[in-house]
Design goal:
Layout: E1 2-10, H1 16-33, E2 36-41, E3 45-53, H2 54-65, E4 71-80, E5 92-93, H3 100-110, H4 117-126
Parallel strand pairs: 2-5
Antiparallel strand pairs: 1-3, 1-4, 2-3
């Protein structure tokens, strides 16, 4: 069963190198687990979309929930999907523009076209958090 999770968490003290290391690890591990998705980090919070087999995602979410680099993991959306919206992204980092005024517009250009409306809205709303 193909599933999707969208979660948010707090990680106010991570450096850019630490975030890059998380992305590198995801890029190595996710293909073997057939997990795809995207990650946004605004300097304080993560927002991550994960796609894959439900059992694999449940195990991954259990590991994420106990990762000491962040806290307050909250699942915003979970459910079954007919197809992946990020099929080629082992884990894509989506950069959030520095200018708050431009964030939503620039983020909209980077998001995959197939994102379900409510998930897209939550991701775009995340872009304006400081």
């Amino acid at each position: 069963m193909l599933s999707q999770y969208l979660y948010i968490s707090t990680a106010p003290s991570l450096s850019r190198d630490e975030v890059d290391a998380i992305l590198a690890t995801s890029g190595r591990n996710n293909p073997a687990r057939d997990v795809t998705g995207l990650l946004l980090y605004n300097g304080r919070n993560f927002l991550q979309l994960l796609e894959g087999d439900k059992a694999e995602l449940d195990a991954l979410m259990a590991r994420i929930s106990t990762d000491p680099r962040h806290s307050g993991v909250s699942i915003l959306h979970s459910g079954d999907v007919a197809e992946r919206t990020c099929p080629k992204w082992a884990m894509k980092r989506v950069i959030i523009a520095e200018s708050v005024a431009n964030r939503r517009q620039l983020l909209e250009q980077d998001l995959p076209a197939g994102l379900e409306g409510e998930v897209r809205r939550m991701i775009l709303n995340f872009a304006v958090l400081n």
